[in-house]
Each structure stands twice: as structure tokens, then as C-alpha cells.
Amino acid sequence: MTKTLPDNLTVRPATAAEIEGIVALNTTVHDATVGELARQLMTVHPHMSPSDFWVGVTPAGQVVSSQCLIPGHLRLGQTIVPYCEVGLVGTLEPWRGKGLASAMMAACHADLARRGALLTLIAGIPYFYRRYGYEYSVPLDAHHLLDLDQAPADSDGFTFRLAEPRDAERLNCWRNEVSAELDLASTRDEAIWRYQLADSQGSGYEAETWLVDRGDETLGYARVFFHGFGQGLILGQASHLPEGADLAVLAHARRLAIARGKPHLRLDLPASHPLVLTANALGARCESCYAWQVRVADPVALLSALAPELERRAAGLTAVVHLGLYGPTVAIELVDGRVTRVGPPVGEPDHHLHLPPPLLAPLALGYRTLPKIREFYLDAYVARGEAAVFEQLFPALTAWVEPVY
Ligand SMILES: CC(C)(COP(=O)(O)OP(=O)(O)OC[C@H]1O[C@@H](n2cnc3c(N)ncnc32)[C@H](O)[C@@H]1OP(=O)(O)O)[C@@H](O)C(=O)NCCC(=O)NCCS
């Protein structure tokens, strides 16, 4: 598990003794909120420990580079897909360009099978991760902007209070209700809610979780984040709210924005979220939406896991389809709508798609359909008349994935 690089730099899993070194590194390379997040992931996050970090160290033992794997689960249709987010990627300036980040990425990728993870996600800087096989594949970081004079001023009849760790169970129920409406969503358990409510102070993902009350009844929640892109007050993660309560939340956010000197509200939510639809009716505009960069760890393992979803879409289809990934080819064999085999090809296919390997993630996760991909990538090639089956098996999906910290 240890790799030696030029200058006798080594890359290996971190130990508990290196917590402070990793915090200091992330504070220097990024900022104090990322340093604090690193500390929390290693010490109080319910599903992580220092051994989820990799470090690059000098012969004297100084930590000069680090990154980590943050485990989570996606729900795609009715299928649970284990994944890891590659996070907190950074190398101290004097040690950059010596292969440390690349060696750690290789180490992370090599560890995925042991962890049972089928995908890695990165919410990272543009372009860099293409060199490691990543492609934009799941919406992230939406900028639905609502000016303060477009937001309601009045929330009469509703009151707001901050959630506490004991609210974790119902927050999770409300959140599950929202994510059930998406084809692809991240899952979250109550332990993560408790971490977020009790132990995430000072991290870059710290948020206030506001509960909405009407009389004795608590109707739902919305979260306001302290850090993030843009100048606006960031409203991310909100439950379904009955009519009137949605406007009251926007009015409450408007009051917070005025008090905090924020020029507008930014809804960091999926385009289909009811609160975004309410904001749109008030004149909100979508300025941009970024995306998670995703890499498929093992195409056969992912497509095997997705067999129940492929069967739901197959509608009785009998066919042998090949996904040629300019290297390995994955065969999917269907008989009367049942997936009978996913694996290396045996014999000739009925339908053959040639696909650059990084594009398997956006196709399989429904971020881009085959026609969209083919508009831009001429090496995503399929013989005349054979595209329809790939469009049937890999449709566009509604998706939103929230970090689990
Ligand atoms: C990006 C970073 C982690 C790379 O670390 P590193 O240890 O120097 O990486 P490596 O030595 O393995 O090599 C990275 C390669 O990517 C290139 N690279 C570095 N930053 C890049 C960027 N933003 N976009 C494209 N390529 C980049 C390097 O030039 C190098 O290319 P080479 O192999 O052809 O010489 C480091 O520059 C860093 O910490 N940057 C600031 C923090 C940051 O942006 N982190 C990522 C946040 S998501």
C-alpha cells in the first residue's frame, strides 16, 4: 500500500498520528474551513476515520499532500449503488508536480473494490480530474437566484427555530420524501444528520437547519449554508412544504439575507424542487449549475448492479448489446426483458455502441442521453439503426446528490 516517488516521498494510508498534519495541510492549501472539515471527517464523522485518508510524506515525516475517500450510497431507481467521494485533494506548493496527487488517486482507485464502491464522485476544480478518467455526470451546486425584492416579505402565521440533534429522525424522513421523487439521489442516515446538527461547526459545509412551525405543528425544514460559491444567501436542502409555508421560508431567508448583507437568495436545489418552482413563479432565474465529476470503477460491476433498472426499462427485449469502451467491451445479454448475463462478450452482438470510457458515467447515470453525447463526441459511435436500444436502456434521469458531511 506504500508507493515511493522521487525525492523519497512516500504515499500511504494515513494514521491517527497524522491528523494534525492533515488539518494543517488542508488549512494551508485550501482554508481553515477545509482544515476543520478534514478534522471532523477523521474524528467525529459517523462513517469515517483517519484510515480513509491518504498522505504524501517527506522522508522526515512531514505530511505534504493528502486526499480521502468519503463513503456513501446512491439510490438509482430502486437500486442502491455504493460510491466514494474523492475529497480534500491538495499538495503543498513546494511539493507540487512530483506525482503525489496522481499516486494518491491511483491508490484511492485501487482501494475501491475492497470497499465495494462502484463509482467515485468528485466535486472538484474544473478540468483537472479528466486526466484520471472523470466526466461531469450528476448535477451539483445550482444557482437559482431570487432577488430580495422578488422574495415575499411576510411570513405571518409561521415561526422558525433551529433544529437540534434530537430532530434527526424526522429530518431524515422529510429528506427521504423529497429524494424519492428523483430517479437518482444520495441516501443519508440519521447519524449523518446528528453529525451535521451537532458537530459540523466551523467546517465549509456548516449550515443552519431551520424548522418551520405553524402553531404546534412542525411542517418541514430548510437549510441555510454559511459558505459556498456566489454572494447570495444559500438555501440548500429543503423538505416539501405546504402551500404558504414555502413562501414563508423564502420570507425568512430574505430576512436573514438582509441581516447578513447578502444581495439575493441562491437556491442550491434541483430544478424540480417545489421551492425552486415557487421561486421561479416569483421571478427567480437559473444562472448556472455545476456537476459532480464521476468515474466508473468497474463497468461490469456497475452494469451488473444496475441490471434490475435495465430490466425495468427493457420492456420484454431480447438482445445482445455490446458497450465497447475502446479497450474492454461489456456485453449485456437480455432474454424476454431479463438480464441473463453482464460480462465479457461471447459471440457477435445485435447492437454495438463504441463509447469513450469516461462517458459511461454520464450515460449510465442519465445525465446525458446517447443522442446528446453523440452531438459532441464523434467517437461515441453506433451503427445505423442500432441507437434506439441504447436510448431505451439508458434514458435521461432526474438527479441530485448531496454531500454526506
Ligand atoms: C491540483 C493539485 C492537487 C495537484 O497536486 P500534485 O501533487 O502537484 O499533482 P501531480 O504531481 O500528481 O500532477 C498533477 C498534474 O496535473 C497538472 N495540474 C495541476 N493542477 C492542474 C489544474 N488545475 N488543471 C489541470 N492540470 C493541473 C500538473 O501540472 C501535473 O501535470 P504533469 O503530470 O503533466 O506534470 C495541487 O496543485 C494543489 O493542491 N492545488 C491547489 C488545491 C486544489 O486545487 N485542489 C483540488 C481541489 S478539488
Description:
It is a single chain. By secondary structure, the protein is α+β, with helices and mostly antiparallel strands. It folds into three domains: 3-133, Gcn5-related N-acetyltransferase (GNAT) (Aminopeptidase, 3-Layer(aba) Sandwich); 142-292, 3-Layer(aba) Sandwich (Aminopeptidase); 298-395, Nonspecific Lipid-transfer Protein, Chain A. 29% of the residues lie in helices and 32% in strands. It has 13 helices and 20 strands. The protein has a 15-stranded mixed sheet that branches. A five-stranded mixed sheet has the order 17-16-15-18-19, covered by helices on one side. β16 (329-335) and β17 form a beta hairpin. The model has no long low-confidence stretch (mean pLDDT 97). Coenzyme A binds next to β5 and α3.
**Spatial extent as radius of gyration:** 23 Å
Low-confidence stretches: none
How far the N terminus sits from the C terminus, by CA atoms, comes to: 27 Å
CATH architecture annotation name of the largest domain: 3-Layer(aba) Sandwich
Q: CATH superfamily assignment of the largest domain?
A: Gcn5-related N-acetyltransferase (GNAT)
Number of helices: 13
Q: The CATH topology of the largest domain, please?
A: Aminopeptidase
DSSP strand count: 20
The biggest beta sheet reads: 15 strands, mixed
Please specify the SSE layout and strand pairing.
Layout: E1 3-4, E2 10-13, H1 19-29, H2 32-43, E3 53-57, E4 63-76, E5 79-91, H3 100-110, H4 112-115, E6 119-122, E7 135-147, E8 159-162, H5 168-179, E9 184-186, H6 190-198, E10 207-214, E11 217-225, E12 233-238, H7 245-259, E13 264-268, H8 274-281, E14 285-296, H9 299-305, H10 307-314, E15 319-324, E16 329-335, E17 338-343, E18 351-354, H11 360-364, H12 370-376, E19 381-382, H13 387-393, E20 399-400
Parallel strand pairs: 5-6, 9-20, 12-13, 15-18
Antiparallel strand pairs: 1-2, 2-3, 3-4, 4-5, 4-9, 6-14, 7-13, 7-14, 8-10, 10-11, 11-12, 15-16, 16-17, 18-19
Helix pairs in contact: 1-2, 5-6
